[in-house]
Amino acid sequence: MQSRIMVVAALFAFSLASAAQLPDKAPARPKITGISHIAVYTSNPAVTEHFYLTTVGAVKESDPENANGVRYAVSATQFVEVLPLPDGAGINRLDHTAWNTDDAEAMRRYLGSKAWKVPGQVEKASDGSRWFTVTDPEGNKVEFVQPPATLKPVAAPNAIGHHIIHVGFLVHSRTTEDTFWRDLLGFRPYWYGGMDDTKVDWVSQQTPDSHDWLEYMLTSGPSGTGIPSNMSQHTLGVLDHFSIGEDSVPAAFQVLSQGSRLTGTEHDSGPKIGKDGKYQFNLYDPDGIRVETMNFHATEKPCCSAFTADDPAE
Questions:
Q1: Where are the alpha helices (DSSP H) in 120-183?
Q2: Would you say residue 301 lies in a domain?
Q3: What kind and span of H or E run contains 253?
Q4: How far apart are the first and last CA of the chain?
Q5: Which CATH number covers residue 72?
Q6: Number of structural domains the chain divides into
Q7: Could you give the residue ranges of the DSSP H alpha helices within 33-141?
Q8: Would you say residue 223 has pLDDT above 60?
């Protein structure tokens, strides 16, 4: 009897020791619930303020993340962050894109468990939001934001739209970027296309937990990373952009033009239907970042590929 007890005790101790040596369970990826914001640089804050307040119709707010920045909000969870133009920026006017998550710390741990370089801790802003920043495979800064538990209402009655439905930026290699955005973060295919059916210039993929999307703006210039040396500021601004969703872009264009809100801005001559079959109208902030108003839904059959997920909505 005594020997049996000793054997059982030994087996129990061995089980405890074995369990202690097992690796911790890999953390699950938290939800990515849509676009938080896009952060851009300004070389003339007063002119930029006029554009985002008057033309876009956003609401000016202080910046809880950066005392030197300003936010122009279109809703309680989405905004454009405008930062002073840093020394050495060259033609670049994009600082980062940012995505809402339900748990910033869990996202930080998740990426760290996948051997992605992450900061040692999340930051906490004065409004109660939490965030951290990483870079994607091509060096683009990406921020993950956990909004505050209690959202401050934003009244933006003059905003040309209240939903930033996608952001896009310069990408050299679709395959390389996919290792981060699709393989690690779970972004889902939505649509791809190009200026003609023989070439892919744009690749759109939605977040795993919303219908907001990221658009790779593929460059045909030199491969690698960074901004090609032969690229102009205007061309880069076309690639580095964000889009505000509309039920009707032609109606939104009428609001902008009849209200004299386009005066002094660079913009297209009028709405057009893009290769994805959706109406769009492009205008540019004073430093060249493209602001695209886009219909939520296509009115014509898209070129190049079919949509593979539901469209966003207001």
A1: 174-181
A2: no
A3: helix 249-258
A4: 73
A5: 3.10.180.10
A6: 1
A7: 45-50, 104-113
A8: yes
